[in-house]
Amino acid sequence: MRILHTSDWHVGKVLKGRNRHDEHIKVLAQVVEIARAERPDLVIVAGDLYDTAAPTAEATRLVTRALSALRQTGARVVAIGGNHDNGAALDALRPWADAAGIELRGSFKENLNDLLVEGTTEEGERWRLVCLPFLSQRYAIRAAEMYDLTAAEANQTYADLVARLVAKLSESFSESSGEGGVINLVTAHLTIVGATTGGGEREAHTIMGYAVPATVFPQNAHYVALGHLHRSQQVISPCPTRYSGSPLAVDFGEEENVSSVAIVDVAADRAAKVRDVPVTSALTLRTVRGSLEQLATVNLPDALLRVLVREAPRPGLREDVQELLPNALEVRIDPDMLPDKTGAGSAQRAGRSPRELFGDYLDSRGNAEEGVRELFDELYDEVSSN
Q1: Cα–Cα dist 20/87, whole Å
Q2: Which CATH number is 2-278 given?
Q3: What is the pLDDT of residues 164-192, one digit of tens each?
């Protein structure tokens, strides 16, 4: 059977004040075109369909239309909730999804069978997919207790609980092997120890106890489709395991990533073969640096820019840069131009007035612009008097 594996769409993303809705339309349209060309039996969307837990109507319309278009290619479509998604809100769309022939799993449920999706391809290959939506530490113990797992004490680590849940959900995998057997699949939205972050993930849900070892996955799984990390990569694991990455660079930390979807060919008696298909519809993200004179020579009309300016800070500098580079979404002084603030000259807060602290801040930034201190004094007097 053939699988199209994608994740981390982050529809509704606003980058430095710029709405990326038009880019998302083009990106998801290209993902649908790839599905039409590759003719997968199954499409897996491994979480983070949205960028926020409260998506706009516009974002919801785009996601539901994209899922419907993928289903119309003839593939079964399974999508799970990620840490950016509102799992309960996704589950509320289940009646629509069921009517559209789409398997939507936003959050963990008491019914264990609800997280197991099964199917048969047109060629008669049977497959079984375990779905693990994002599980926060807050609910990990409660979810484990739902399945009557032993020793679910509060002092267990997040990885322990995820491993127990995966083991329980994949118990049926032992029933099949070899030619004519069932293709065992897992999709999950989580961080694997040793995997490389893409640069734009939500840090609190990527590290700080949320990373789990790849050994949580069963050896007899034919393929594990992961979401959460935005860089496409294979993971060292007891079974074939991969992050598809995001189909567009979500933030400037991801500008070196190659946006793509994964196409997986797998059979019950053959190892999974994976190839990445690039997704090129989004604008590229680029970081440029230099003086105003140097920035005037930059020619990147089809890129969104982060600009590190090699000039002394002054009022109006941002506007000057954006006049030269209209696609500059972020403008700041190059860190190499700022004084070292770790030395003895760092200001001590205790016993110092706001005027003195602001003066120290300006000195630390190399800002000697006339009138700035006086404007601060006027503002401070006005606020204090009110």
Answers
A1: 23
A2: 3.60.21.10
A3: 889 999 998 865 555 568 999 999 999 99
